[in-house]
Structure formats: structure tokens, C-alpha cells
């Protein structure tokens, strides 16, 4: 194992995440000490101490707070990310996004404010992964 720094949010995942599977529908607030992966549909607010991943085809309606995030699905609500957010080309966000670092793929849609708390510019990139895989 090398000591090479991990650049992608997905490379930072540790342990076993809380998982809401495809086809699942959840209503209510969620607080997690670790990572969260959502492939279903949720209405509620989330505070995750780890990373938050919303897969392609998934939907979240409510506020999200996490240390890092990957968004490939639909979000209706605000996102407050302490470190880095990666917004994939399939993402559709209606609400404000705040993070220390924002990387946004061509084709992603954000209807709301983007605030980079570090003062750096939003990084725009062309997604090369097949289907925007997480």
C-alpha cells in the first residue's frame, strides 16, 4: 500500500456505509457518524460525519450536510459540504451548494448558488468515467 494522496471523494470512503438501496423510499431525518450512500428516494434532512453519495437515478429532497459528497442524482434542497463536492454530469440540483472545493462535470445542472468557501474557482471537468460511475 502506498502513501499516495487520494484525490477523488470516492477514494476517501472508510468502513461500511449506511446504504439506502435502489427502490427504497424513506421519509425522515438521518444522522450518521460515517458515510452514507443513497440509491433510492429520501425526503428529509441529513447530517453525515463522513461522505455522502447520491447515485445516478436517486433522489433527495431536503438539506444535506457532510464532510465530502458525490452527487449523481437529483437534489431538491441545500447542500453544505465541509470539504469537497463532486457534481457528476447526471446530477440535477435545485438549491444552494456550499463547499470548500467544488468540481462540476459538464452536463450537470445546478439551479441555485454555488459558494466555494476556500475562495478557489469551481473546477469544471468532462466526465470520462463510463456512465458517471461512483
Explained architecture:
- The chain starts with 17 loop residues before the first strand and ends in a 9-residue tail after the last strand.
- 0% of the residues lie in helices and 49% in strands.
- It is an all-beta fold and 134 residues long.
- It has strands at residues 18-20, 25-27, 30-32, 36-38, 41-43, 46-48, 51-54, 59-61, 64-66, 68-71, 74-76, 79-87, 92-94, 97-105, 109-111, 114-116, 123-125.
- Strands 1, 3, 4, 6, 7, 9, 10, 12, 14, 16 and 17 form an eleven-stranded parallel β-sheet that branches. A six-stranded parallel β-sheet has the order 2-5-8-11-13-15, with no helix packed on it.
- The chain contains no helices and 17 strands.
- Residues 1-6 have low confidence and may be disordered.
- The protein has one domain (18-126).
Amino acid at each position: 500500500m502506498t502513501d499516495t494522496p487520494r484525490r477523488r471523494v470516492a477514494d476517501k470512503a472508510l468502513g461500511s456505509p449506511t446504504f439506502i438501496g435502489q427502490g427504497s423510499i424513506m421519509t425522515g431525518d438521518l444522522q450518521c457518524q460515517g458515510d452514507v450512500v443513497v440509491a433510492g428516494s429520501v425526503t428529509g434532512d441529513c447530517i453525515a460525519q463522513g461522505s455522502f453519495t447520491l447515485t445516478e437515478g436517486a433522489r433527495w429532497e431536503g438539506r444535506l450536510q457532510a464532510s465530502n459528497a458525490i452527487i449523481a442524482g437529483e437534489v431538491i434542497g441545500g447542500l453544505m459540504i465541509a470539504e469537497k463536492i463532486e457534481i457528476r454530469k447526471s446530477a440535477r440540483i435545485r438549491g444552494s451548494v456550499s463547499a470548500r472545493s467544488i468540481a462540476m462535470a459538464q452536463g450537470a445542472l445546478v439551479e441555485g448558488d454555488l459558494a466555494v468557501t476556500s475562495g478557489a474557482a469551481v473546477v469544471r471537468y468532462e466526465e470520462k468515467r463510463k456512465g458517471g460511475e461512483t
